Please model this.
Amino acid sequence: MKITNVRLGRISVPLRTPFKTALRTVSSVEDVIVEIHTDCGAVGYGEAPPTGAITGDTTGAIIGAIQDHISKAILGRDVEEFEPLLQSVQRSVVGNTSAKAAVDMALWDLYGQSLGVPVYKLLGGGRTAITTDITISLNDPETMAKDALSAVARGYDCLKMKVGIHPELDVARLAAVRKAVGKDITIRIDANQAWSPKQAVSLLNRMQEQGLDIELVEQPVKAHDLTGLKYVTDHSYVPVLADESVFSPENAMTILQMGAADLLNIKLMKCGGIYNALKIASAAEVYGVECMIGCMLEAKISVNAAVHLACGKGIITKVDLDGPVLCREDPILGGAVFQEKEITVSRDPGLGIHGIEAGYLVYFD
Ligand SMILES: [Mg+2]
Model:
C-alpha cells in the first residue's frame, strides 16, 4: 500500500451554542481535513482544528506544514514501513503538532485498513465503549447553572465547567451549578491557566470547604509554570490535571519526575498524534499517573481517532471527548457512534471513517 497523494480540504460545522473559555470564544468548528490516498484505492482520513490560542497552529500553518514538509516526507512510501513513517512525520518539521496529528491518524487509519484490523485493537483493544463528560462554557453563574441542568437532562453525569474569567466569581459559578444539579453529578473544572498558584490553592480549598465537591482541576496556572503547578498539586485538596503544560512526551516526563500534577491530559493535537500519545500514556503508566483523553473543538474524524486510543489504553481513565456532541451537525460518515455521553468505537478496519457528507468538504487543490 503505497502513498500516492495527500489532499487537503476544510470543513465548517456549526456549534449548538458559542463555546467560551478563559482563552477564547468560537461559534463553529473550522477544521483542516487530510486525505492520504494510496495505490490500492484505500484512503486514510485525518483532521486538525486550528487552535492558535492553544497550540499556535492556525489554518495556514497547518496547511503549510503538511504541504511543504510532512507530505514530502511520506509521499511514495509504503504504509507497511509503519513506524519509520510515523517517525518521519514527527521529524519533518519543528512544532506544528496539529498538522502532524492529522497526518499521523490518517496513517494509523491506513495501517489498520491494510491489516484488516480496527486501530483500537492494534493499540490494545481493552474496551469498545467509553463515557464522556460535557463542557459547560464560561458564563455568569445563572447561565452556567441553566446550561448544566440542560446537560444533565441530556443524560450527562459528568460536567466539565470552564472557569477563570474574574476568578472572584468562580466560587459563585461552582456553587450555582452544584446547587442546580445536586450531589450525584461529577463536576470537574478547567481554569485554562487563569490563576496564580496561590490564588488557585485559595479558590480550590474554598470550593471544597463549601462542599462543592470538585473531582479535579485542569491547568490552574500558566502552562510554563511547572513549579506553580506543583505548588497547587502539593497544597490543594483538589487533584490537579496538567493540560496546556503537557504537549510532548518530554513535557510529560518532566511533570512526572517533578510530581507536578496528579493527572495528565492527552490530546492528539498537542502531542502530534497517536504515536507520541502512546509514549505519554506509557510514561504515565510507569509513574502510576492516570490520564484523561481530551480534544479541542473538533469534528468527528480527529475525535474518533482519540476514541480508538482511549479504547486501546487502560491508563486513560477519564474521557473528555465532547467535540462532536457540541456540534449542531455531523457530516462525517462512519467512525465512532456518539450517543450523548456514550461513545462506541467502530469495529471497521482502520479508524472506520467512510467519508464526508456531500457539500461539507471544500478541497484546497
Ligand atoms: Mg483543558
Q: What stands out?
A: Residues 121-352 form a domain with the TIM Barrel fold (CATH 3.20.20.120). Residues 190, 192, 218-219, 243 surround magnesium ion (CB under 6 Å). The chain has a mean pLDDT of 96.
